[in-house]
Write a structure and sequence with these properties.
Blueprint: H1 2-24, H2 30-35, H3 42-53, H4 56-69, H5 71-102, H6 109-116, H7 123-155, H8 159-210, H9 216-240
Helix pairs in contact: 1-8, 3-8, 3-9, 4-5, 4-9, 5-9, 6-7, 7-8, 8-9
């Protein structure tokens, strides 16, 4: 069973690299590269945002937390995630989208702060750039680590080797295709994530029912992750529309 899964994952990596190459030919300006030409619709935006936001921590971290601690910890995490995502998209996203165009068509967050508040000395942009560098380096590293652990646990591949290969693939397609490649890949990944969680939820219910000991808390833990993903996607879609 492991060989077909490995082949499928290798094919997936090849496809995302091809997506990066494909969109590199369509990227003409820096605005195309960083923002997709500001032309992405609400569906792609919502799916891409949620697939990017709910990465390895949702696939591996939150289920592990639910398994280890039960509903209490995972439940509060889900509640905080839903509220935080809603407030972010409701209060920040729309205003930021419009203000970036007003503020000399700012492409990045550091550029926006610098242009919005007339920071000629670039102090705000420097601070925000440093914060992005620090926190997103840790976040990206955790994603690479998850890839290494996944291949190591499933196929016995050396952890470091798997992590490096995964990092090369991810960096390759995002660097080549920019935001268009990332959003295209993420929007398709969203459907796979939803299908995966739905399958796990149904499998859990079926297994618990089969052994005649239907455990509501156990099923609820599995459902939390699935519902969390769907709910945040709906919120993003409604607000982006």
């Amino acid at each position: 069973m492991k060989l077909p899964i490995l082949i499928a994952m290798v094919l997936y990596m090849a496809i995302v690299v091809w997506i990066g190459v494909f969109y590199s030919r369509k990227t003409k300006t820096s605005e195309d590269y960083f923002l997709g030409g500001r032309g992405l619709g609400p569906w792609v935006t919502a799916m891409s945002a949620e697939a990017s936001d709910m990465s390895s921590w949702l696939l591996m971290g939150l289920p592990g937390l639910a398994y280890a601690t039960g509903f209490s910890q995972a439940g509060w995490t889900a509640i905080g995630l839903i509220l935080g995502t809603y407030l972010n998209w409701k209060i920040v996203a729309k205003r930021l989208r419009h203000y970036t165009e007003v503020a000399d068509n700012a492409i990045t967050v550091p550029d926006f702060f610098s242009n919005r508040f007339k920071d000629d000395k670039k102090i705000l942009s420097s601070i925000s750039a440093v914060m992005i560098l620090i926190f997103f380096t840790v976040y990206t590293a955790s994603g690479f680590a998850a890839c290494g652990k996944l291949f190591n646990s499933l196929f016995g591949v050396d952890y470091l080797t798997a992590m490096i290969i995964s990092a090369i693939v991810i960096v390759a397609y995002t660097t080549l295709g920019g935001f268009l490649a990332a959003s295209t890949s993420d929007s398709r990944s969203f459907f796979r994530v939803i299908s995966f969680f739905l399958f796990c939820f149904c499998a859990e219910v079926r297994q618990r029912s089969r052994i005649c000991s239907l455990s509501f808390p156990s099923i609820l833990n599995c459902f939390i992750v699935f519902a969390c993903t769907v709910d945040n996607f709906i919120l993003c879609l409604q607000i982006a529309s």
